[in-house]
Amino acid sequence: MEYLLLLVGFFLLIKGADFFVEGSSSLARILKIPSVIIGLTIVAMGTSAPEASVSINAALAGSNGIAVSNIIGSNIFNGLAVVGICAVLTAFQTNTDILRRDMPLNILVTWILCLMFLDRQLSRPEGIFLLIGMVIYLCIMIHSALKNRENSSDIQALSLPRSLFYMAGGLAAVVFGGDLVVDKACQIAVSWGVSQNFIGLTIIAVGTSLPELVTSVVASRKGDSSLALGNAIGSNLFNILFILGMSAAISPLTVLGESIIDCILLSFSAILLWLLTRSKYTMTRLEGAVCILLYVAYTAYLLIR
User: Contact, 55 vs 67, CB < 8 A?
Assistant: First the structure.
């Protein structure tokens, strides 16, 4: 029964995020916001709603292993698997704004998180510091959006009432689904004798990152590489600054030694992705394949450690 409810939880997470993204993206088009800003903010936050629900619920339940490892695992999946799969399907040009502003910021934020982990905890003041960073980042994005408003959009927007309905219904499904996933994943982890850290880094991390994967792949196939890459990088920033920040502000998190290693690996994967996308300002199919193979190697490392 636990497995069935876990699948139901994942279904609600994915479909809820899908509706939320569609509604919020439509609202952004009504406001005439460029696609790169949509990807970095509204779509990134929408597709990260499952991670937010899982990690915050886990923090409230005292499941620190899942709260932390879910974010680290999701960010590694986003940076290597999501971007890698998009590049393998369709090589894309790198948006210069993302390359010069958001990817270096992603590296910086990840290293700051590694430093915060060194004392084996993420305290409430550190969580508040991350939340302040999120507010500053959003202010920068809003300023950029107002400065670069578009007169038209090639994609037809939903009506305003329908957009708001999609957002409300999607968020409700995500919150309920996240609660189911945390509860059942913890029960399954105990029955298997598997650590919460491993479950959070693999099954839950990949499951809650499926919205990012689907959204980025669809955007990439439609030729909107700014939305695809912006979604992955924006989600990683949102995951650390808001989700871990909010989780720690609610309840200080204990950090395992394994999570420190995983965070260091995450920072190196962020640097690698920046170097690959910086090369000739493109992400080729070969570079995408390298990213996917590295994620497979990381998963194998988790199995044997």
Answer: yes
pLDDT of residue 150: 59
**pLDDT tens per residue across span 159-201:** 888 988 988 898 888 878 877 887 787 777 778 777 766 777 7
pLDDT one-digit tens code per residue, 110-135: 999 999 999 999 999 999 999 999 99
DSSP the chain: -HHHHHHHHHHHHHHHHHHHHHHHHHHHHHTT--HHHHIIIIIHHHHTHHHHHHHHHHHHHT-HHHHHHHHHHHHHIIIIIIHHHHHHHS-EEPPHHIIIIIHHHHHHHHHHHHHHHTTTEE-HHHHHHHHHHHHHHHHHHHHHHHHT--S--SSPPPPHHHHHHHHHHHHHHHHHHHHHHHHHHHHHHHHHT--HHHHIIIIIHHHHHHHHHHHHHHHHHTT-HHHHHHHHHHHHHHIIIIIIHHHHHHSPEE--HHHHHHHHHHHHHHHHHHHHHHGGGEE-HHHHHHHHHHHHHHHHHHHH-
| Residues in CB range of 92: below 8 A, 6 or more apart | 86, 220, 225, 228, 229, 282, 283
Q: Are 212 and 81 in contact (CB under 8 A)?
A: no
Q: Give the per-residue pLDDT at 152.
A: 47
Distance CA 267, CA 262 (A): 9
